[in-house]
Amino acid sequence: MIGSLVHLFRNLRAGFVLAREGALALIDPNVLPPAARMALRLARLIERRQAGDGAARLSAALTRLGPSYVKFGQFLATRPDIVGVAAARDLEHLQDRMPPFPRKDAVRMVEIALGRPIGELFLEFSEPIAAASIAQVHKAVIRTPEGPQTVAVKVVRPGVREGFARDLQAMRAAARLVERLVPDAKRLKPVEVVEALARSVAVEMDLRLEAAAVSELGENTRDDPDFRVPKPEWDLTARDVLTITWIDGIRLNDVAGIEAAGFDRVALARTVIQSFLRHAIRDGFFHADMHPGNLFVDPQGRLVAVDFGIMGRLGMKERRFLAEILLGFIRRDYLRVARVHFEAGYVPPHHSVEDFAQALRAIGEPIHDRRADEISMAKLLSLLFEITALFDMATRIELVMLQKTMVVVEGVARNLDPRLDMWTTSEPVVREWIERHLGPVGRIEEAGSALSTLGGLAADLPDMALRARRVLNQLEDVTAKGVPLHKDSVSAIGRAEARGNRWSAAALWIIALSLMILAIRGF
């Protein structure tokens, strides 16, 4: 009970800050139930005047709430199906920039993590050059057999794990409350979203896993002539410290610098799109935070990515789905695109394939034969999510993250080449993968894999038969005798349900009364 009260008041504080900074103005009241609309009206009574536009309001509120909420905001920027396209677009502008912590604290963290004095580890170790919610970066120099080498050293912020653990518990409580009070929200899986954030943050806070992501992406792309990633220094990497090759290059948002260096902007834009698609479709492992600050062009003209805290992964089923969807849109075969959705089980079978194909045509046709600067990707995303809701399509987090990353990547490429045609640029990569995996060679490999699976299944048949027999015997017993339920269990279930309902009602009243008190005091 005490824990529930603590989470309640933490969420009240978060709600107050969001309301005070004007971030709640971005919520469409028409999609809320009556009680929630009333709570929203009360909350907006304390809104600060001149709070700025949507991006400024969200940025101010989340930055004021601290690192956990900044990270949550960035995570929600990848989920327009939950917050809406407009809010997701505003959240894209949320900069994960926090005040740096002192160099001496970073030195202490490095020495504890690596077990040696800083002078033995590095020839030089700079003041922080960039600071974010989870970690900050220092420039350093290490000894190598070839001579001194410049590296980037990422150090986890002291106390960040404890802070995230507290805030995530409050977010979990809020997500459970939303699912209980707003039945329509269950399709958006708020609890699952918070858990996905928790997993993402856990990965980001273990820098050994980020080093592994760098290494895996490096292996996948070692034969790609136009893309590279830094190399991790494993001897200087631990849970709280990551050391990788220093990247000298020009950021992709520095168009003037790229032109002054003599690089081909059109070719570079094509490389951005095709590299991302190769990683997603060919490898099933892609950088999910490819904004301009994380992308450089090196002196050799190669695209270089940094900051591998957020990565996406697709299984073979999802990769096949993505490739066929893209190829279907490129060829305007909307019926095939619709069938792929149904075959993958993403759209319930009670819907019509033809009706879904018609809806997909409404997405695909406006973008064909038009330049990239004539296409509103935000409008297309909005229409797509409306259609998925209309056809009861289950939210697939990995596909939504991929979809959102594609929009960001296209934005980066369009900044380099405003006349970029994403579909024409994508077609060679998609066609190559489909010919390789869905053509004769791919079918033979798939048949071989199926035979191997069947062989393993045959070996397990005796054991499976025995287990099936035991299960059938148990089912017969249950059918004959029923499921016994002790009267104490029935009473306990009733008490738990009543207690849950009382807490839900109490939470709503406390929130409403708190907002009224704050409004009366003139906040």
UniProtKB/TrEMBL annotation:
What does the entry give for GO biological process?
ubiquinone biosynthetic process
Domain Protein kinase, by residue range, is: 123-440
GO MF, one term, reads: ATP binding
Note one Pfam family from the annotation: ABC1
Q: Which domain of life is it from?
A: Bacteria
Q: Does the keyword Transmembrane apply?
A: yes
Pathways per UniProt = Cofactor biosynthesis; ubiquinone biosynthesis [regulation]
Keyword list, A-Z: ATP-binding, Cell inner membrane, Cell membrane, Kinase, Membrane, Nucleotide-binding, Transferase, Transmembrane, Transmembrane helix, Ubiquinone biosynthesis
Regions that span the bilayer: 503-520
| NCBIfam families from the UniProt entry | UbiB
The UniProt entry's sequence similarity note says: Belongs to the protein kinase superfamily. ADCK protein kinase family.
Q: What is this protein called?
A: 2-polyprenylphenol 6-hydroxylase
Please spell out the taxonomic lineage of the organism that makes this protein: Bacteria, Pseudomonadati, Pseudomonadota, Alphaproteobacteria, Hyphomicrobiales
